[in-house]
Write a structure and sequence with these properties.
The chain is of the alpha/beta class. The protein has one domain: Alpha/Beta hydrolase fold, catalytic domain (Rossmann fold, 3-Layer(aba) Sandwich). A 4-stranded parallel sheet has the order 1-2-3-4, sandwiched between helices. Helix 8 links the parallel strand 3 and strand 4. The protein is globular. The two termini are 28 Å apart. The model has no long low-confidence stretch (mean pLDDT 97). Keywords: Hydrolase. InterPro entries: AB_hydrolase_1 (IPR000073), AB_hydrolase_fold (IPR029058). This is BPHL hydrolase. It holds the Pfam family Abhydrolase_1.
Amino acid sequence: GSGQTDFGPQLKSMNKQLFTVVAWDPRGYGQSIPPSRDFPPDFFERDAKDAVDLMQALKFKKFSLLGWSDGGITALIAAAKYPTLIHKLVVWGANVSVTQEDVRIYNGIRDVSKWSEKVKKPLEEMYGHKYFAKTCEAWVDGISRFAENSDGNICQELLPDIKCPTFIIHGEKDCLVPQPHAEYIHKHIKGSRLLLMPEGKHNLHLRFAEDFNRHVEDFLR
C-alpha cells in the first residue's frame, strides 16, 4: 500500500487543529521509490528506524504513532526501541509472530490477479501491475520466513519494553490477522487498551472511518 492509497479518511478528516498528521511511505513503497522494496530479515527494524529518523529530521521531539498491519508491527518496534520519543501508540491489524496458519493465509493473497478489483485498482495505478505483483510475492516470502523462528517470533520480546499509553484496535472479522494476535499484544503491553470492532475487517479504518477516527482522536488528546 501507501499513505496515499490506504489512509485517505485519516489524512482528510482527522482534526488538524489538534494534530499534525505525517503520513510516510517506507522505502520501496508509494512515494519512497526508488529503491525497490525488499524484505531482508530485519525489514521491520529498518522501517522503524526510518520512521523515527524522518520524524527527527522534521524536528518533532515527541510524537504518537498510528500503525496498521505491517505498519503496526513497525510502530510496536519503534515504541519499544525509542521510548523517549513516542508519546502514544495506536496499532490495528498487527501481529508479533507468524504461525503456520498465518503462512497459509498469506499464500492465499500471493497472486494479486485474484484480488478484488476495488482493492487492486488503486495499487496498480500507483505501482504498475508488474511491480505490485512482484512486491506482493516478495512480501509473502519475507513475512513467512518468521514462521521458522522459535514461536514464529517477529518481536514478541520487545512488548514489555513499550511504556507509552497503547491502544490496540482489532476487527473481529479480520481474515488476514486472526484475533489471538491482538489479544497477545494487549496481554504483553502493560496498561494497554483493546477495542474489538464486531463488524471490522482488516481495513476497519477505511470501512468504519468515522468511528475509528473518533476513538483514535479521543485516545490521543
